[in-house]
Every structure is written in structure tokens, then in C-alpha cells.
Here is the input.
Amino acid sequence: MIPVQKLKDAERIVRITMILILVTAGTSKFFSDGGFFNYYSVLFQGELRITLPVSLVNLFLSLVPFIEISLGLALLSNKYKDYTVYAWLGFMLSLMFGHYILQEWSSVNQMLDYIFLGLLCLVLPAHASWLARDLGEALNAHDS
Here is the structure.
């Protein structure tokens, strides 16, 4: 059996990875001078099997960087971790759906990695604080 301490350390690494992904992605979109929005807005207006209203697509594309930064910052909180991970999963599923509509099959497959990252974060136990490791449990495990 894997010691709880190692599982908590793994959760911290997974969560830090998720935070870096979100904050980096959101920040880069803010500084892309509209590149992200313009690129995907045009793609969604092409000849697709499933068409969505342009206003809905553009609203979502406008919100993406704010969602990414917000989720990244919210993942810093242990108190709201579960809610934030569920939001992460919903957001990643929405991105996967978008890639599916665009028929970008390799991107659909790549989105599964992000979904599994969220599931891993959801099921792993967390340390009580970002500033300390829960060593009490680790010491008790070595005593037995």
C-alpha cells in the first residue's frame, strides 16, 4: 500500500501542475493581442457538422482566460479544492467538446490527459496546508 504521505505529496504536485497550466494559459491569452479569440472564432464559423451561434462561441472565447486564471487561483485553496476540481473537469470537458466540434481528433484525445489530471487531484488526499507537510501521519506510519 502507498503511504498516505506520498499520496498527499503527489496530490500537491498534481495541483501545482494544474495551477501552472491554468495560469500560464490564461496569462498567455491575455497577452496574445486577440490572437486566441480571433483564431478560434474564425474556426467555429467554418463548415462544421455541429454549428453553434457565433455569439455563444465568442462569449465563451472571451471568458476562457478569465476562467483559467480564476480556476488556477481557486486551486490554491484547500477549502474549495473539490468544487474547483469539478469546475476544472467541466471546463476541460467544454474544451474537449469544442475540439470535437472542430473535428480536431488529436486535440480531443489530448484533452483526456487534462481530465485524468483533474480526476487524480480529486481522489488523492491533500495536505492540511500548502505551507507544511502533514508529518504526524508519516511519523506514526514509521512507528508501526
User: Anything to note?
Assistant: The CA atoms of residues 27 and 65 lie 7 Å apart. Residues 4-30 form the longest helix (27 residues).
